[in-house]
Specification:
2 copies of one chain form a homodimer. Chain A has helices spanning 44-59, 89-94, 126-136, 173-183, 198-209, 216-219, 222-228, 237-258, 275-287, 299-310; strands at 4-11, 16-22, 27-33, 65-68, 83-84, 87-88, 97-100, 106-109, 113-115, 121-123, 146-150, 155-161, 164-171, 270-271. By secondary structure, chain A is α/β, with parallel strands linked by helices. The first copy, chain A, folds into 2 domains: 4-140 and 299-310, 2-Layer Sandwich (Nucleotidyltransferase, domain 5), CATH 3.30.420; 172-287, 2-keto-3-deoxy-galactonokinase, C-terminal domain (Nucleotidyltransferase, domain 5), CATH 3.30.420. Chain A is globular and about 65 Å long. At the A-B interface, strand 13, helix 4, helix 6, helix 7 and helix 8 of A face strand 13, helix 4, helix 6, helix 7 and helix 8 of B.
Chain lengths: 322, 322
């Protein structure tokens, strides 16, 4: 059995995942908890770290530790100031901030990425996943750049070229869905359903995609009125609303692409995220003519491993170093 | 002093307003309460009606009573089924449903309006306000039709021609604002402000108006990132978000108009709603080149009065009867 070489942490707002990786970046062990930075138990960062990784460090005292995500935010363990886009993996390495734990271990915290502009954008954690995807799929380093989607509470779409995150967008699709379902009139006529209703979902996607409506603030009301007029059951309404919002996200992305003489139709892109959500996005992307959007597996571990290698924390072969 | 001739109720989801009108439609007395149909005190509709209007009926036993709003919905006192658009005042009269109170009075409930289609739309209460506006401003009966905006929790924009509501849109602008502010990450960096910040509001409007962004699900995130980058204070963020959402609403409306070779720029329209909110909409409309959008006062009372007159509940001169 191979030896542990790195502890890699994906420490976000609502969850913590810790990986014990070997010298090839393969996970030997994994621990997941709900101790995100906004849900820390008493004892805070240090004790949570100790409970999660202490046994690994007891057995292997010299293991290097790397972490990415909201743990490096202003509300995190220690702030790792944003690196500005365009940003490559080497810029992330240069922006790593260290924090010393009570037991004397050093945690290396990867910074997030900030894109300045009229509508600034920020990410923390996704940059590491993106570099993980690049490491595991060299076809993404195409001449005209790659487009990577990260569905979720705050969905990100990143344009990557020459190994750098050039620019990206944030869509508050997941969080807006939750707020509309749980805190507006739309939820009052909905019933949760144990199985997804694909036709209702795709009806929402198609409605958002097609011209002729005045935008998402208007189309969402049809979740209610299609119920009132007997065209959607209470169980179909959540999937319809989800399809609407994801459809509006993809329509907006498509408009950005069209200004660059590009389009989702026929495009090859990659998704990073949980399987069920990526499946929903793939179904929605197909309605926009995009049928080449596989999920990149293990992007988080691969990204943490790659950055740790570039930072010299582990002696490992580094592909596409820059 | 003139004699009471009509009791007119505006009975919505969260509030009840009762007017005692004379034969010319002038309000002699008014009572407002929070006893909307979703907030009824014990005793329900009948007792709330009695507490609100009983004294008026004790003094004038034969007064006719008319009501509009959610009181006629499936969750209301008695359901007054929707009348289909295009709908004139006479169609509303034909759709009136009566309910007898415990004391023997008859309440005449005005139906709402339904527009069928791929994205159905419904209104209850606004139809009555619109006919009130038409009654008090004959210039609205122009050849090419009138556009009337009703800002609020669910903002409505109605196209009126030849005295009929032809079609309309619903934007969940107000309710979405509340859900985003109170139930997403955007609220976490906000502080309420006692005075509106007009520049922050207009910055939001302009951002939504200008092309180059991928839609409202993306622009709302800038409420947070402009804070993170020191460009918006915590107190400015609510007004910025409000401007964004109203701006997206108007942009969507403008796109609908552009498909008909029309535009908000240079257009004459009317607003119905509370003064502060109409002021915000006027400021936003001005950024789209529309500087002729006065508020129509007393639209609710005028509409109830007009429909009561058309229904023969009161003997009154009826303008623009049809």
């Amino acid at each position: 059995m191979s030896q542990p070489a790195l502890i890699a942490l994906d420490w976000g707002t609502t969850s913590l995942r810790a990986y014990l990786l070997d010298a090839d970046g393969v996970a030997l062990d994994m621990r997941a908890s709900s101790a995100g930075i906004m849900k820390l138990p008493e004892g805070g960062f240090d004790q949570t770290f100790e409970e999660t990784c202490g046994a690994w460090l007891d057995a292997h005292t010299q293991l290097p530790v790397i972490a990415a995500g909201m743990v490096g935010s202003a509300q995190g363990w220690v702030e790792a100031p944003y690196v500005e886009a365009p940003a490559g993996a080497s810029a992330l390495v240069a922006g790593i901030v260290q924090v010393k734990t009570d037991r004397g271990a050093t945690v290396h915290i990867v910074p997030g990425v900030l894109e300045q502009g009229t509508l600034p954008n920020v990410m923390r954690g996704e940059e590491t996943q993106i570099f993980g995807a690049l490491a595991s799929d060299t076809s993404l380093e195409q001449k005209d750049g790659a487009l990577i989607g990260l569905p979720g509470t705050h969905a990100k779409w990143a344009f990557v070229r020459d190994g750098r995150i050039e620019r990206f967008y944030t869509f508050m699709t997941g969080e807006t869905f939750g707020a509309l379902r749980d805190h507006t009139i739309l939820g009052r006529t909905m019933h949760p359903s144990s199985t997804p209703d694909q036709p209702a979902f795709l009806r929402g996607v198609d409605t958002a995609r097609d011209a002729g409506h005045p935008g998402v603030l208007a189309t969402i009301f049809s979740t209610r009125t299609l119920g009132l007029t007997g065209q959607l059951t209470a169980e179909q309404q959540p999937d319809y609303l989800s399809g609407l919002l994801i459809g509006h996200e993809l329509r907006g992305l498509n408009e950005v692409l069209s200004r660059e003489q590009s389009a989702l139709a026929g495009k090859a892109l990659r998704l990073i995220g949980n399987d069920a959500l990526c499946d929903r996005y793939r179904a929605a992307l197909a309605r926009f003519g995009c049928d080449d959007a596989p999920t990149v597996a293990h992007a988080t571990e691969h990204g943490l491993y790659r950055i740790a290698a570039l930072a010299g924390l582990i002696a490992a072969p580094v592909r596409a170093a820059q």
